[in-house]
Specification:
By secondary structure, this protein is of the alpha+beta class. The protein is about 20% helix and about 40% strand. Strands 17, 18, 19, 20 and 21 form a five-stranded antiparallel β-sheet that branches. The chain has a four-stranded antiparallel β-sheet with strand order 1-2-3-4, with no helix packed on it. Strands 5-6-7-8 form a four-stranded antiparallel β-sheet, with no helix packed on it.
């Protein structure tokens, strides 16, 4: 009996001593597994960083931080990695709002100001940094478009009231009123500032002398309403986009000096825009953004670029020509590398409504959407 009691006592002692050791062993194994998972998460994030996929890298780095939460020594390198990624990611600088819909927005050439066009019958000018409103440019109808002259001294606006108007960008004084027979969708200055081109609902694009407000030459006629117009940076070409519902829309490129059409592409094209060196231009059809070579008038090898979720309604090269920004009806905007067509970010930038316009700042560090 005494021997049995001694055996039971030894068993109980072994359990009492062995249980904490087993718990410690299990805890060490758990920690080792967690550390291995954290290392894998960090490795995934670093690989994505090296590939330029900043937002996806953040997901892995923040999950690694969550697993190591509570251990200050292990948290520190995660926080350093996350801070490094955030410094390279785009961030929201300001929000400008008026009316119900913002149709268009554009940076001033020096990047200090933004002009917006709205359904509240005004275009407005804002400081980028503070968000303070500087000017209000009134029309008698919705304002669809507003843009600066190359030297930044003037702004031209386009409106449902059948006019385009030229304004002093510093004082807001009205300089010229360009009258049309129907609503004006878009307008822009020529690179030398001597002309304005307008896109009208009556199926014409027109050129105007900015000093006198008089029309120059004959209208450039299309088969449907003209929704877009833009000069090439060298002033040689004029790009137009015209809609002939319900069938097709047409992008055209014209010799500006003589009004001769050099290019035409009919497939739901909604806008045309040129690269800064005038060697390429963009068209959109549905969810496709197409890149064309001016010299051959043929599509680039990596074209078309895609934006899931809806039609692309706006596209533009950055001022230095290195990236392309586009957005549209799918509530998304995206930035692509202009030389390869690869997306700059893994995820598109999401909005709560349709994107009517997108533009990259002069220094290339930020972009604005409306």
């Amino acid at each position: 009996m005494a021997g049995l009691c001694a055996a039971i006592a030894l068993l109980i002692l072994a359990i009492v001593i062995g249980s904490p050791l087993a718990v410690l062993r299990i805890d060490r194994e758990r920690q080792q597994v967690q550390h291995n998972v954290v290392r894998q998460y960090v490795a995934n994030g670093t690989r994505l960083m090296d590939n330029g996929d900043l937002f996806a890298a953040l997901l892995w780095y923040t999950e690694a931080l969550r697993l190591d939460a509570g251990d200050a020594r292990r948290e520190e390198p995660h926080r350093i990695r996350i801070a490094s990624v955030l410094r390279q990611c785009p961030r929201l600088l300001n929000v400008f709002t008026h009316g119900t819909i913002l149709y268009h927005t554009r940076f001033s050439p020096d990047g200090d100001r933004v002009v917006t066009a709205s359904d509240d019958h005004t275009a407005r000018v804002w400081y980028v940094g503070s968000g303070r409103q500087l000017l209000e440019l009134p029309h008698d109808g919705e304002v669809y478009d507003a843009s600066y002259s190359r030297d930044g001294s003037r702004i031209v606006t386009s409106s449902h009231d059948s006019t385009a108007r030229i304004w002093d960008s510093q004082t807001g004084a009205l300089l010229q009123t360009l009258r049309h027979d129907d609503k004006v969708w878009r307008s822009c200055f020529s690179p030398d500032g001597r002309l304005v081109a307008t896109a009208c609902n009556d199926g014409t694009a027109r050129l105007w002398d900015t000093a006198t407000g008089k029309q120059v030459g004959e209208p450039l006629r299309h088969d449907g309403r003209v929704e877009g117009v833009v000069f090439s940076p060298d002033g040689r070409f004029l790009g137009t986009a015209a809609a002939s519902y319900p069938d097709t829309s047409t992008a055209s490129v014209w010799e500006a000096a003589i009004g001769q059409r050099r290019f035409q592409f009919a497939l739901e094209c909604e806008n045309v825009s040129f690269s800064p060196d005038s060697q390429r231009f963009l068209t959109t059809d549905g969810s496709n953004l197409r890149v064309w070579e001016v010299r051959s008038m043929k599509e680039a090898s990596f074209s078309p670029l895609g934006l899931d979720g809806g039609d692309i309604s706006c596209s533009r090269f950055s001022p230095d020509g290195t990236v392309i920004v586009g957005g549209g009806a799918g509530f998304k905007a995206r930035v692509w590398d202009a030389s390869s067509g690869k997306p700059a970010f893994s995820e598109a930038i999401h909005h709560d409504g349709m994107i009517f316009d997108a533009h990259v700042s002069p220094d290339g560090r930020s972009f604005v959407t409306a």
